[in-house]
Prior knowledge:
By secondary structure, the protein is mostly beta strands. It contains 2 helices and 22 strands.
Amino acid sequence: MAERSGARMEAMIACPTCGTRNETPSPVCARCGGSLLGAAAGAVRGRPMVSLRVVRADGGPEQVVQMRQDVLTCGRRGDLALVDDPFVATEQARFYFHGQRLAVEDVGGGNGVFQRLHAERELPVGSELRLGRQRLILEPIPSPQPGADNVLAWGSPDMGGQVRLVQLLEGGARGAAFPLREGHNLLGRELGDITFPEDGFVSGRHAMLSVEGGRVLVRDLGSSNGTFIRLGGPAYVDHGDQFLMGRQLLRLEVQALST
């Protein structure tokens, strides 16, 4: 009897909506009517339950989808459909398990998938940042041609730096260029070496880019809306991670299975 009771408990699964424990064969929660299909699949594999939420800044109802198979896709079509965003590809990203770890990959290119920065990390040349409404790419500063004035194409004097940030505007046009000096370069709305005074989504002191020899390090300074780095390849992700796709802010939610 004890063995049968233990087996029954192992077959129980928590509803991802209300937390009620249900028997696995049931497709819906006995308490709230929420679907248990994705949760049951996770239980069979011994993996956590995964959801992706569209965060609404205006406090309105948020769209949430669960991973019901081995892969969760999002784009203008997919498991999470972002149908009204012209800056998102038909299929922009996929979340999938690599062994027991969850990963994300940008499969749509175009405007890309950006992950919120949690800790300082190196920023290779060619990397893209998003902060507020700014999209910035890190580029090397071209060597001046013989006989040419030592100025940049945008009119800023070359202060001897090796890299610069260049604004990428909607439609792919290039905007202002900001040379980075050796040492610390503060980015913000009101204070700093590089400022965006008309962008209300950039914090007063938003992020720091530190140039150390041939390396560039980036860290967020506790900004309200975060600093995001474009994915350059598959990356492991965890509960609470946030992503920007087009104009959409998404949050990953991972719920460990009850034992």
